[in-house]
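User: I'm new to structure prediction. If I give you an amino acid sequence, what do you actually give back? Let's try with this one:
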Amino acid sequence: MLIDTHCHLDAAEFAADRAEVHAAALTAGVSRIVVPGVAVEGFAGLKDCVARHSGCVAAYGIHPLYVMQAGEADLQKLRAWLATEKPVAVGEIGLDFYVADVDPERQAWFFAEQLKLASEFDLPVLLHVRRAVDQVLKHLRQHRVRGGIAHAFNGSRQQAEAFIQLGFKLGFGGTLTFSGSTRIRELAASLPIESIVLETDAPDIPPAWLNRGRNTPGELPRIAAELAGLRGIPEAELAMQTTANARAVLPRLS
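Assistant: Good question. You get back a string of structure tokens that encode the predicted 3D arrangement of the chain. For your 254 residues, that looks like this:
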């Protein structure tokens, strides 16, 4: 069985067929799906989504691309959700310096405040690190948390090792299925297997065979098979180890 450690099953892209997408993932062997939040306004819908679909669990957080619409009151609302709903993590939080029209200082402030909440509630974090790996690491050294997952990791080996030293796992998904993603494929093949977890980020980051179409959690077994091939190990071994990794870094999955 496999664990999808990052899947936006509550997204609008699944509104028409969410139940079918979920059922297909279960049939394919995906036993657990972590659904991260992106904005306070969506938390109620996220809670309903995971309640309706077996094996799904929630994380709550304010995504860096949503901080321009968020205020300080949203952090208090987030604190209440963390206190009452017992999520598996705080997330999706972090920094995104790829999108130009999101204030980096505002992102950094919201990120730091959410790291403080993660520390307060002793929760791991699900990190968004696009074009901001070193800056995210700087914040993690200033605001220590109990680890978590660097989602859609796309950094260097040195950066990967820095996350691992801080107690983090690295999330790999559809990007590793592209032959041109040489750095990601090399890292996925050679990093300690104990440091790797699987994810889809559905409906985003589709694997190569979807030709930029909508991604779903049911694609995870084929992504896992690709990774097993890169590492030269049986698919069953990869599934067992990555599942153990996910449970270790997100204790509430158990």
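You can read the tokens as a compact description of the fold. Here is one thing that stands out. Strands lie at 2-4, 30-36, 56-59, 90-96, 125-130, 148-151, 168-172, 196-198.
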